[in-house]
Structures are given as C-alpha cells and as structure tokens.
C-alpha cells in the first residue's frame, strides 16, 4: 500500500519522485501535532530509536529526538565523547552492542562517508543517515524541500541556487539529488577550489558570478564553510570569503521579490551571510528547523509503523 517500502534511509540517491512526495505529504500531515497543546501521539509506542552521533550536532540530533518522542517511541542518544568509542571500540563492535539492546531504528551521524551503509549491511535495525562525512544528509534535503514546497507551492520548475563550499557539503549533495529528481533546476556557485569536478555530471549549472546565481533564483541556499573538513587552505581568508561569496542585502535587491533564503545551520554570521539577511524578510531558516521535526517524524513513521508496510 505504501509508496515507501524501504527499511533504511541512507541517502536520496535512487529515491524516486513518488517516494519524496510521499515523505513530504506525510510530514505535512504530521506537522500539526507539533502545534497542539499536547504534542504527542501513540503511533510508535514501545519502539526504540537510538541516536548514534559520532559528530557534533545541535539541530539534527534534537530534531530526531523530538520527532521520536512526539510519536511516543523510546529514545536515547549516544555520542562519541562519553562513550566507549573514546576507549578504542570499533564501529562494528559498538554497533553490535547497540543491536543487542534491540532497537528498531538507529539514527547515525559519522565523519566517514558510507558509515551508515556499512552499519545497514551488518546489523538488523533500520538506519537513517543523519549525515555521513561529505557524502549525504538526506533528512536535511527533505526538510529543505518541505520548506520550499510549503512556501512556493511546488518544487518543479524552480531555480534553486546553492552557494558556498559545495565540495565538502553533504547538504548540497543530497539537495542536488533530491531537487533534480523533483524537477527543480539547480545552480551552484562558490570558490573554484570548492566546486567538485563531478558537479556537471550531477546535472547542475555552475554560475560564473554571485549575481548570476541569485538573479532569477526562487531559492538561495547558503552553505556553511566546513572548516573542520578543509585539510588545505582552499581560500585565502574568511574575510575575503565573506566579501566574495557571502550573501548581503545588496545581492537581494535584484533578486525575485518572493526569493527564499535558506541555510542548514549552524550559520557563521558575517561569513556566509550578513545578520541582516539571516534575520531578514526572505529568510526561512527557522521554518527549516521547525519542518525538520515534521520530516523526521514522517520518516520514523514510514520506516517503523506496521500500518505503512
Ligand atoms: C549540516 C551538517 O551537519 O551537515 N548541519 C545540519 O545538519 N543542520 C550543515 C553543516 O554543518 O554545515
């Protein structure tokens, strides 16, 4: 019966338009629970969701935790610091031990690309990828698409410009995969050293200036400079980055009147965008965070509820 017959969500690669629409429709209908005085339904009562985070996270981790709680699942979090991972336990050993506690689903963030795929091969519970290295961050792209669809009424035929450190961004990669599947055209822009050589093979256009990326864009998505992933110095300084690739009010003066400004967070204010833009009328950054809870509720529901199978 379901258009979503998967056991895991490891990435948006290979996820169809119907599946994405189904996830977003489910998220739209669950969103209302978050506005009720009693923000809880019994749907996943007795199910166990483990948040297994090897990398720092504020929004994603709390959002998954809230999503699980609002559906009445039991949940606990394990992070690298404060666990036996710091004592040298291997990923597979930690995962097997977690599996022994009989979770139904593990949400996993890891600094190595492919880590959740590895786990999915070796243990039984469902796995959701909450960000793996520079590879994918599917739930971020889904909440971004939910926000765009909610604000602009559709995803097909839109121009979405993604600006910044494309090479190291799992957010960019998942959004490119998801948005092109949904019929948006994606344009990218950033320092040449941070545009991956395979960009064109992903079906995106590469802009030659900031203004070209912003003109006619329905959505401008700014990315954080991934300082923790920059092994070499790939641009001169943050100050110069801000001047050449930061989004300011002046850029938006020429943009479409209904343009949306997005950012996955955490923002480096004054680097990727000025505070006036981050807090300004085009910004939907906090709606993205609110929709994150609804999208994660939808995924937990679709992956775990027997009714959907
Ligand atoms: C992103 C991430 O961790 O990939 N943040 C998030 O999940 N909201 C983006 C980033 O860290 O730049």
Task: Describe the structure in brief.
With 309 residues, the protein is of the alpha/beta class. It has helices at residues 17-31, 59-70, 91-99, 115-122, 138-152, 170-181, 210-214, 238-245, 249-252, 275-278, 285-304; strands at residues 48-53, 74-79, 105-110, 126-132, 159-163, 185-189, 205-206, 219-222, 260-262.
Name the CATH superfamily assignment of the largest domain: Aspartate/ornithine carbamoyltransferase
The helix/strand series, from N terminus to C terminus, equals HEHEHEHEHEHEEHEHHEHH
The mean pLDDT is 93
* CATH topology value of the largest domain: Rossmann fold
Strand order of the largest sheet: 7-6-5-8-9
**Could you say which structural class the secondary elements and strand pairing correspond to?**
alpha/beta
Residues in helices, as a percent range = 25-40%
Q: Which percent band covers the strand fraction? A: 5-15%
Which segments are poorly predicted (pLDDT under 50) over 5 or more consecutive residues? none
Largest β sheet strand count, sense and barrel closure: 5 strands, parallel
CATH class of the largest domain: Alpha Beta
| Bound ions, cofactors and other small molecules, one mention each | N-carbamoyl-L-aspartate
Q: What is the number of beta strands?
A: 9
As a whole number of angstroms, the C-alpha radius of gyration is 19 Å
- Domains (count): 2
In whole angstroms, the N-to-C terminal distance is 7 Å
At CATH level 2, the architecture of the largest domain is: 3-Layer(aba) Sandwich
């Amino acid at each position: 019966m379901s258009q979503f017959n998967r056991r895991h969500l490891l990435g948006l690669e290979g996820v169809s338009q119907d599946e994405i629409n189904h996830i977003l429709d489910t998220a739209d209908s669950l969103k209302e629970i978050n506005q009720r005085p009693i923000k809880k339904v019994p749907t996943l009562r007795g199910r166990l969701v483990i948040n297994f985070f090897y990398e720092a996270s504020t929004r994603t981790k709390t959002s998954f935790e809230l999503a699980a709680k609002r559906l009445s699942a039991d949940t606990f979090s394990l992070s690298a610091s404060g666990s036996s991972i710091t004592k040298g336990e291997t990923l597979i050993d930690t995962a097997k031990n977690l599996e022994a506690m009989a979770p139904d689903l593990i949400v996993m963030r890891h600094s190595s690309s492919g880590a959740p795929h590895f786990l999915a091969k070796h243990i039984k519970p469902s796995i959701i990828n909450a960000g793996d290295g520079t590879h994918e961050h599917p739930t971020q792209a889904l909440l971004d698409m939910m926000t765009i669809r909610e604000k602009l009424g559709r995803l097909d035929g839109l121009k979405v410009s993604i600006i910044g450190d494309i090479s190291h961004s799992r957010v960019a990669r998942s959004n490119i995969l998801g948005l092109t599947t949904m019929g948006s055209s994606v344009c990218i822009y950033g320092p040449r050293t941070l545009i991956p050589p395979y960009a064109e093979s992903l079906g995106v256009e590469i802009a030659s200036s900031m203004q070209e990326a912003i003109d006619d864009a329905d959505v401008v998505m700014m990315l954080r400079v991934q300082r923790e992933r920059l092994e070499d110095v790939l641009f001169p300084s943050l100050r110069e980055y801000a001047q050449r690739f930061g989004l300011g009010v002046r850029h938006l003066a020429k943009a479409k009147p209904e343009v949306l400004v997005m950012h996955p967070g955490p923002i480096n204010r004054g680097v990727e965008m000025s505070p006036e833009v981050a807090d300004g009328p085009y910004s939907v950054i906090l709606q993205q965070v609110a929709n994150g809870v609804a999208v994660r509720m939808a995924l937990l529901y679709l992956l775990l509820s027997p009714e959907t199978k």
